[in-house]
Protein: RNA helicase
Amino acid sequence: MYGNIIHPILYDTQIQYTTHTTLGVLRKENNNIFVDDLKEEGEKRSIPNPCRTFLEAFELYPEIMDNIHRVGFTKPTPIQSQAWPVLLSGEDLIGIAQTGTGKTLAYLLPGFIHVDGQIVAERGGPGMLVLTPTRELALQIEAECSKYSYKGYKSMCIYGGGDRRGQVNVVKSGVDIVIATPGRLHDLQMNEIINLRSITYLVLDEADRMLDMGFEPQIMKILLDIRPDRQTVMTSATWPPGVRRLARSYLKDPMMVYVGTLDLAAVNTVKQTVLFVHEEEKKSYVFDFIRNMEPQDKVLIFVGKKIMADDLSSDMCLQGLIVQSLHGGHEQCDREEALKDFKDGRVRILVATDLASRGLDVFDITHIFNYDFPRNIEEYVHRVGRTGRAGRSGIAVTLVTRENWRMAPELIPILERAGQEVPEELVLMAERYEKHKREKEMYSPRGGGGGGGGGGRGRGGRDRGRNWEF
Structure:
């Protein structure tokens, strides 16, 4: 048993516009917002109009308006302007947007209102759950919850590497909003410490990263305990097959809002430069880059391995540079200190691995330096999206060696869609790789494999017939 019926949100879904042309122009000017109704059966629903001001979204909620005015925001970001009307209408939502676009508030504020509409005495546990890939991101979301504190609702973080006993005590004392990483939450779930059946508003934040980090089994087990008539939000920077499968299985007739393009594309506020080097030349390139930095610049340097993060940062220290490194081998307190130093500007150079940097929320990063090329093209997009945020421009420099040739065919369209120059050497590298791949397939034929997974159990367990490839 899951308890009582979920109470709907009171909201006027149709913000008035003079003409459909005006509405189309607004969506185009707001980073080319596109909305799609993914309902598979029956008539399509009317898509709520985007809000142009905070008042259009939250006129009925003065406490939220007071918090927005206190923080000093002037107008909603593109993802917020369309996500708020959809979520306040009670619909499930898939939001495709890069980091730094305001997506956290896009789901948090409607979540507060949703939780407030439920009867606490009948709930018997938290009403809202945000699942997120890393402890750093969980802590940042919890900080946003505190900043926009609504009607005294209590939020908490649950994450691995933290004080488990302390987290258990807070859960048992009673909380309204839980922000958690899948591993630690699944631990508390299996030990019957937390009641997930009370959750009526669920957020899967940065779903693509959670899948990249191997959290899908834990997510599936967590969702089995959450009532099927919940409202669900999924955010992702990319739309790969794994994320589509997760959405198909666990969201009910969602609306999809995406900002910019649904294709995998790096943000167009970032100038991307690709340099071709030999492995042994990398250090000289990164030191040349740092010597040419301006005093106000802030650079995030990505490396592929923990040992390289330590090695490179040590070399920089020996050169008299103020630098921090960030990777999973560090103690949690050291990671938090490195993040704080970088965020506050005491350190302007941070050397990090991909996993450690996930959830890094620093809006004034001016440069990204890809010392090692990432494992996949999705990770490249995530890295580049760390700069050029919140209306700022940024620069991304990527070192490419001969060993990275398999990524060339995927990198070219990313650069083209973002209006970047494609080096001739990258085109030749892609052609050589494609030729190599064709020859390999010719001499190593393989039979066709079985198909992929079906519709999943999730919300009703039926196979979704519609093609979600878009």
